[in-house]
Design goal:
single chain, 299 residues, alpha/beta, 8-stranded mixed β-sheet, 25% strand
Length: 299
Amino acid sequence: MLKVDTCCKTYRVGAFGGGELLAVRDVSFDVAPGEVVALIGESGSGKSTIGKMILRLLKVTRGFISFDGVDISTLEGRKLKEYYADVQGVFQDPFSSYNPIFKADRVFTMLRHEYFSGQSESEWHAKLGTSLDAVSLNPGDVLDKYPHQLSGGQLQRMLIARALLLDIKLLVADEIISMLDASTRIDVLNLLGELKSRGLGILFITHDLNLGSYISDRTMILRKGAVVELGATERVFENPLHPYTRSLLASVPQLHRKWGEVAAELGTPVADAHPEDGKLIEVEDDHFVASGASARASC
């Protein structure tokens, strides 16, 4: 369904854009229907940049992204509109997706004008009700309300419902539960699991290893814009082979241990000890790990 092939993203930085920052380096992966792929990395590793390139919010510097075999960079006009009917994104801060001077359900009204203008009132309300029910929302609780009258969890669920109205094939979920409280997080995660069972492909972008392992079928570990480990989630978490992956897992807080004990074991951060990584090598079935130090890739 979705295929990301050796993608790079370079930003112009410095005075008058004279410098370059390589934010994403030769990243390749795919997402199949009904599959959740977790993209895990620390802040600044390039996770959101990859999501924005898939959503056509940023241009790819080198490489390409295809959906159902079509290079998305070639899509314009009606074809691009059709792409967004199949691929949608939900982002970290639900409040930033709403205009506070309008009622929250305006996000549905805008979608109706663009994609469902031919439907009658009864057809539209039936479709909207089905979509809200899929995310466990009661229309009476959320419609005709302003964003400040709703919780972050309700607003986030409304954005997911908005995507479901289009009967999408792929959801780019970029840190969608990082601002929610613990009880709401598990509800949203279970909702994503339900959507996966219906055939929705999900790219789950997160910095939290626990969340990634809970929901995903496959996991990518991203470091400084490059994938250093990729494979079936149970293989990556039960048998981490890249030093950076091991460092991340060792850094996860543990209830039965104090911080000082863990800090003493970690020693020098891997990010400083291993500044570069090479191509991915398959070390076992559906488990790929970056090779040792190599020359810097160029975009």
